[in-house]
Amino acid sequence: MPALTLREVLALDPVRAARPELLAGEGALDRPVRWVHSSEVYEGANFLDGGELLLTNGFGLTDAGDEVRRRYVRELAARGAAGLAVEVGRALPSMPPEVTDEACRLDLPLFALHRVVPFVRIAEAANRAIVARGLSGRRTLVRPWGDDHAAALLADLADGQALNQPEVEARAALAGFHPGPGARLLGVSLHGSLGVGAVDRAVRVLGGAGALRAAFPGDVLALLAVPAAVPGDPVRAVQEAFRGAAEAGATVAVGHAVGAGGWLHWSETLRAARTTLELALTVPPAEPALPEGPSVTSARALALERELTRGGVAANRDRLAALVQHTLGPLLAWEAAHASDLVRTLEVHLRHGCSPTRTAALLHIGRQSLYQRLERIESLLGLEIDDPDLLGELLTATCAHRVVRGTRPEGARDPVRYAATAACARPATTAQQPTDGISRHFQRSA
User: Fold this and answer.
1) 11 lies in the same domain as 117
2) Using CA atoms, how far apart are residues 400 and 403, in angstroms rounded to an integer?
3) Which among 445, 429, 323 is positioned nearest to 383, based on CA atoms?
4) pLDDT for 116-132, tens place per residue?
5) How many structural domains comprise the chain?
6) pLDDT at site 140
7) Which residue from 112, 151, 204, 401 could staple onto 21, CB 3.0 to 4.6 Å apart?
């Protein structure tokens, strides 16, 4: 049976409820759709493998220039996207004419959604129909039913589909997934080639842990059942397994460890893994990456980033930029005028308990150079950075700075950097004037 087409996706009730208007690509409505994916990140094309219908609320296009918008459409077409659906009326009053023009030129189906319908409803309905079409069109002798049951169940769990415990247990059993007594379950989302193979290798490293896994456009999703016999922290155990199992260049995100009972917990750890993977792919890391091997992180390692971007990066961008400017304004002004790495130094220092030894090693600088940076940071901010009352505020602001800078649309004005540049024109206060020498308390805390 042929795959679901764009024309058939448009006929689904949640899609019709959004009042889609076709603006371009009328001749390509019979194009097959492999998956429906939503993203508020401007660089959404990076997550596509071809055949996806991309849903976006247009936040990433609001402040972009004409050429940047055209490039966005070209990149989607180059990645083989099945189509683009943009919500108009909130972030975008109407579809930008250059987006429509570029889509027409490339014969990329472009839809304007005139009524607000949660994208999760559209994606759930479409992806369930896609999976169902795939199941009904495959013969058991060609592809085992277990693989298809795994994909369908993982999709429902990751999308937060309303289920019940008996249904989940029955479907998991059909997929061959039987968590043992005392097993701890962890969601894993992996971006990179040979992802399913990496999951299987990690399972072997973990002593035969059970796994429900499937490849989806953009990533591999898995639910691992770590046996109770595996000692120590299950999150760290899974991370270490993937450091040896995944290939160089892959990105792996591990969710929280949950008990085997309660399908809602299964859904939570899978959703946490997927959210973490998207952040890991779009936000620069706080620390220098390892020169070789995969990048492996966890939901708890990016807990602050996840909390700051709850509801999407674009929806929080102005709030985060204001927070950064309020807390780190003098540092940003200094960095706008000098070649320095003070904000990053401050974040690494705070994340590692204000240990000069650990901070210097991670930044690959000498202790004396680190002391000079810390002295300058304190002088510019007019405070002591190891004051316990300030740790939370400073760490939140440095993390927000990295999130805002790392995910802003190409060509858009960086509100943090712009504010910092403007601040350079103002004379520094006495508290902002850098001083020479090394703070004694930095030496004492070594």
Assistant:
1) yes
2) 5
3) 429
4) 998 888 887 887 777 66
5) 3
6) 33
7) 112
